[in-house]
Amino acid sequence: MSHEVSDGPAPLRPPPEAELVEAGKLTMGQLAQAHRDRLETGKQVLDIIVERGWVSAEDAAALRQAHGIAPTPAIQAAPEPEIPAAVEEHYKIAIRLNSGDLITAGETDGADKAAALGHAVVADLTQVNGEWPFFDGRFINPETIVSVDLISEDSTV
Predict the structure, then answer these.
(1) Which of 34, 86, 93, 156 registers the highest number of CB atoms within 10 A of its CB?
(2) pLDDT of residue 136
(3) Which DSSP symbol is given to 142?
(4) Dihedral sign for Cα atoms in the order 157, 126, 38, 34
(5) 98 and 146 fall within a common domain
(6) Across the chain, what does the average pLDDT equal?
(7) Residue 59 lies in a domain
(8) What's this model's pTM, rounded to 2 decimal places?
(9) What is the pLDDT of residue 22?
(10) To 10 degrees, what angle do helices 111-125 and 28-41 make?
């Protein structure tokens, strides 16, 4: 019996959306925001960037076809659940500045999603490309950032 063994792990490839950044059709900030939205909504990044109007539906469809990504099926109205699901705690992910200001970077339900979104925000803030991060309608001087806070809906700041 003969088994083929690979010479190691498959090479890592950037996500297909990175091609849109390379082509100048999408900025790194927009791609980062789309990934944060994906964590909050569960939607595919390509769907998010089309919904936000950053990339045309045609460009997204061409990218899906080039990479063999199935189109997202049309969303149908979900049937009413028979048993109410447990309500997860709502979190706001906020960037705290040394002035005391809080800048909302995202919102989500559930502690695990909040932690993942918090990590994504920290990753955006710690990029070394020299650009100031953009959140909630403003550019932020990285030297003024104190923390990224996960604020429970029930907590007070």
Answers:
(1) 93
(2) 76
(3) G
(4) positive
(5) yes
(6) 79
(7) yes
(8) 0.46
(9) 85
(10) 170
Domain of residue 57, residue span: 18-67
Q: Averaged over 2-8, what is the pLDDT?
A: 56
The neighbouring-strand residues paired with 145 are: 97
Whether residue 1 is contained in a domain is answered as no
Distance from CA of residue 98 to its chain's centroid?
25
**Domains in the chain, number:** 2
Q: Is residue 111 part of a domain?
A: yes
Same domain, 113 and 59: no
Once rounded to an integer, what is the mean pLDDT over residues 95-112? 87
Say which residues have a Cβ less than 8 Å from residue 147's Cβ, sequence separation at least 6.
95, 96
Nearest to 49 by CA among 65, 30, 22, 63: 30
Residue 71 has pLDDT above 80, yes or no: no
Judge whether 6 lies within some domain. no
**55-69: average pLDDT:** 87
